[in-house]
Inverse folding.
């Protein structure tokens, strides 16, 4: 049975580099989704025409979007802290 010399067929040298790539990819995706939701919320404000229930709904949507974006921005910091400081990955 033939085994190739280099079994790593990816572009990554180690697991930490792969995890950092995934974090960057998902961060970009999360920011894009958050921007889309903020724009949709803006249209909801504009199209509410003074209706208090629609304004409150758009307000909650904006708050939830910003909280979700904050969580998405903090999550990679926590993961990198765990990988580097607790597990000792370089």
């Amino acid at each position: 049975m033939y085994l190739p010399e280099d079994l790593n067929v990816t572009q990554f040298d180690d697991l930490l580099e792969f995890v950092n790539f995934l974090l960057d990819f998902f961060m970009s995706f999360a920011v894009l989704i958050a921007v889309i939701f903020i724009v949709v919320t803006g249209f909801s404000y504009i199209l509410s025409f003074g209706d208090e229930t629609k304004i409150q709904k758009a307000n909650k949507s904006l708050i939830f979007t910003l909280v979700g974006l904050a969580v998405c921005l903090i999550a990679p910091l926590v993961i990198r802290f765990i990988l580097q400081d607790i597990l000792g990955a370089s």
